[in-house]
Design a protein that fits this description.
single chain; elongated; four-stranded antiparallel β-sheet
Length: about 150
């Protein structure tokens, strides 16, 4: 009788621990960059991981999804470097730095407040949505900085 009670307690504990301990939470992140500027944009990022160039046509957008086995989203993979050159129509450009000193100069792609960020999900699952929109104001700021 005592062995049966111990076995039942063992089984209940095993089921309870198995149900509660599901491992690391899963995180999904959707990144979207929209070009509402009316100009062709080239985004050239330079950093320790190398160089990356992305071209977004006028009124186009690009999207990327990343999955992680941890809680919390990394920042946008398009801007993994320490500086990013934004070029409009291959003629007008502005340089964004990860550690920009003059935070008021223009809308910097490295600053969280310039992205629309939403967090959704359920217990053990985390979903993030990052959206950045280039507008004619971005073009004008780049033009004014020439």
């Amino acid at each position: 009788m005592k062995k049966n009670i111990i076995a039942i307690i063992g089984i209940v504990l095993f089921v309870f621990i198995s149900a509660c301990c599901t491992g690391l939470p899963h995180t999904s992140v959707d990144y979207l960059i929209k070009n509402n500027s009316g100009h062709i944009i080239k985004i050239h990022t330079v950093g320790e991981q190398g160089s990356k160039i992305i071209t977004i046509g006028a009124s186009e957008q690009i999207q990327e999804r990343r999955d992680f086995e941890k809680r919390g989203a990394g920042f946008c993979p398009f801007f993994y470097g320490d500086s990013t050159l934004i070029t409009f129509d291959d003629t007008v450009f502005v340089l964004h730095y990860e550690n920009e000193i003059d935070q008021s100069r223009y809308k910097n792609v490295y600053r969280d407040e310039n992205w629309a960020i939403k967090e959704t999900g359920k217990k053990g699952e985390y979903e993030y949505y990052y959206e950045y929109v280039f507008t004619d104001e971005d073009y004008q700021e780049a033009l004014n900085s020439q």
